[in-house]
Amino acid sequence: MPILEDGHVHFGENRVQEAKNKWKLVDKKFSNIKLHFIGKIQSNKVKELFGLFHFVHSLDSQKLAKCFSKEENKLKIKLKYFIQVNIGDEPQKSGVAFNDCENLLQYCKTLNLDIIGLMCIPPVDKEPKDFFIKLSKLNKFFNLKELSMGMSSDYKEAVECGSTFVRVGSAIFS
Question: For residue 98, is pLDDT > 90?
Fold first, then answer.
């Protein structure tokens, strides 16, 4: 794959099984690959992420945090996490409510999870920049170093607002 040969190392996947099939062979040749899980996680699937993924962008509940902590302790593998915030308060989307984010962050710290930043997906029908600014301010308030926001259609605005990780797969691979 030319993108691997050119030195790109960070890739996102939103399905565990698809990632296993795709990256198992690639990992042997390109051992520096860093895989990011960006999809919704069911608690019974948490253990499948270990040994394949390095980052999780969709931690959104105490229940999931507890599952990740249990697997980290059992396997002696540490992952890096983004707390997914439901920035637009949309009932159909995953993510912790904006006002509950601090409680989840504190809970994750008690479990010794490596929370490196926040993640959001703004509402499709609204200007994303206002949501990006809001999440960026919260990220700074928590003194977190990374920020995961922006996709193929709005990554420029996200980067302007401080995003350090963007999800632009459809712009590259479609």
Answer: yes
